[in-house]
From TrEMBL:
The keyword Transcription regulation applies. Gene3D superfamilies: Tetratricopeptide repeat domain, Winged helix-like DNA-binding domain superfamily/Winged helix DNA-binding domain. Keywords: DNA-binding, Transcription, Transcription regulation. It comes from Anthropogastromicrobium aceti. This is LuxR C-terminal-related transcriptional regulator. InterPro entries: Sig_transdc_resp-reg_C-effctor, TPR-like_helical_dom_sf, TPR_MalT, Tscrpt_reg_LuxR_C, WH-like_DNA-bd_sf, WHD_MalT. GO terms for molecular function: DNA binding. Residues 719-784 form the HTH luxR-type domain. Signal peptide: none annotated. GO terms for biological process: regulation of DNA-templated transcription.
Amino acid sequence: MDRYVIIKKTIKTKFDEFMDHGRILYFGAPCGFGKSTVAFELLRGKKFELISGLETDGILPEIKLNRDIVVIDDLQQFQEDEDLQKLNELIRDNPQKKFVLLSRGGVPGVFRAFQYTGDMMVIGARDLLFDRDDIRKMLFEYNIKLTDSEINEMLKESIGYPLGVVVTLQCINHADSQRVFNSDIVKEAYHEVFLYFEAAIYHRFDLPIRRLLLELASFDNFDYELARMVSGDPSTSELLDWIQKNTTMLLYDGIRQFRFWPQFRDFLLWELERKYSSQKKNAVLVRGGMYYELKGDYEKALDCYSRGKDHSKVSEILIRNGESHPGMGHYSEMEKYYRSLPESEILESPSLMQGMSMLCALNTDYENSERWYHELEQFAAKCKKQDAVLRQIKSRIAWLDISLPQRKTDKMIQIIPSVFRLITNREVKLPPFSVTSTLPSIMNGGKDFSPWSKIDDLLYQTMRIPVEAVLGKDGVGLADCAIAESKFEKGEDISGRILLLVSQLGEVQKKGTPDIEFAMVGLLARSQIALGRAEDALRTVQMARERFEENGHTRFFHNIDAVLCRIWLHMDDLERVQVWYREKAPKDPLHLNVLKRYQYLTQAMAELALGMPDAALLTLAPLESYCRECSRYIDGIHINVLEAIALYRKKDSLWKEKLNSALDAAQEFGFIRTISVYGAAVLSLLEQTEYKNDDEWFARLIKDVRVEASFYPDFLQPHLSMENELTATELQILRLICADKSNAQIGQIMDIKLPTVKTHVSHILTKLDVSRRSEAKTAAKRLWLIPDDKN
């Protein structure tokens, strides 16, 4: 790093403060951060006395103090407390002298008093990291030209580590071919840095330290207990304390968790591959898995066992995790571990076969879902009647009969009483359910119970007791919430039923499940929105989220946040909608996760509000076949309405077909609010349709739609769309403007004359309703004409 030295403003400020009134300037950072280079550049032209811990073999010599400034490099070599105390006393006794201390370790305790009094300025690793501007300066000095995207990639790969940046630039300079930044340069730079680490750091440690570092490199973070279990060394705590005291390669949260600097961990993993056999590496991971298993952290245990190739432990943990986590949610979370198991291992476990049947169904692979269901049936057929495991298998089959999404709800009117008799006769004991699949609804949760709504009063009277018995804790409050939802969808006044549900919330929280609580909260919020009280709905959901967070029910957060986004859409709060869309929307049309369908629908609503009808159609398309296969009537209505709105805004006449499909489905079940919730967004479409199947029902629907439109006149209205869209050429030029290209550069790239560029730029600014080029980028992001940097 002797060619050019980066002195940041923050570092120069601390140095000036040190020279004005400080006593100590302390540099603490791992090897390769340029501590000495920066320090000596700052001291250029000043006389100082230099002492190196490496040259004195870690023994503090007598310091003569012939100069006003004393520089002590490699302070970490002075490990004896007596030496540090002696240096501390020397500094205290000579207030007129200044000391620059450079160390690979943290600030020793004996010097902290100077820091508290403001006499010591500390420059750490984060202060020395390079940013984009620093890399640009280095590129200029090396006479290397890279694009902005290449600079961003270099920063990402190096994380601003100074040695990594400099070595990369040297590798580019020494390349035989054209001097470019590519994956080969990255690999070469990493190799050079790792060789330096090996010689300058790793080989200076004793063998126990080396062994501990290599074995801990397999873990993202660790504490003393994990380190002891992985290493099997009772003195591990002392070794970690030594590393923390004498180096800064470990980042510590101050409570219990350690992690390595990313670049140094990459080196350790590289060294691990070279020094440890596959069997030895797997043994380390399995010991880590044992630690997490004892802690009850099954997800991390599975990760360790899976990487350690211990399939028997993976299957054992999956079985145990499935028993302790109710419902379907954990299957998707654990999918990669299920998929990693040999089929022979799965065929030996009823729990794993149940899990694979559900997992395949959630991935819309119904053929394989049924295959695993039949494998479970065959397993049961081989068991003798007195076999204790037979009861467990029957329970799992009954669970799948009720839970599999491809099982139609109309058949469940026969299935539930049958299962109820088996439970009463103690022939089965069902595993836990998740009736709602963490969605804010019972009618449209794990199953779509629209067919039941046709006879909801009769079913409430006849099915309530068997349903609550079959579902156990999930049955607490379920029946009252379900019939209230049914009446709400039909447009009836449910204020009395809502009061009953609110009075039952305490019992649900105490004896029931958070699934039913969330369904009740969701219905309460929807009823408040329907009455024009979106602000009340917002408070209802925010308070529920706080309560769920206090109780550790984080699996509901994605859908809770989607509910909040829908409320913001009603409140026309597009700023918060954009934040949700940017940071939390699924945005993955190529991999459908049916448990995220509420979020997909919310995403499509946000895209309509943000003026992106094409994006909304792309979001909704994968859900169509799922809704048909699994008889998701309510989701199907929402999809058709949203697609109709999107097509209408694109002036595609197909919107009428989509809207009529939604109307036919809603009319069949007598649903009103499933469509009227869209208010102003769907009103003009309904006014142009000629629906004649049920005049009375349609009149009720129109009336409710008008009420919602009066409450929320801007719901899903694309405020950010432009009256005059940009032409293809103008869009290209806008992107170049946002890339900070000058008019001359744009003309060169587009092969057009400068006056023509200026004309295009003027038209673009007018259409974006801004007056300056600097404002165009912000406007383009808000209109989604260019990608947001945070995506």
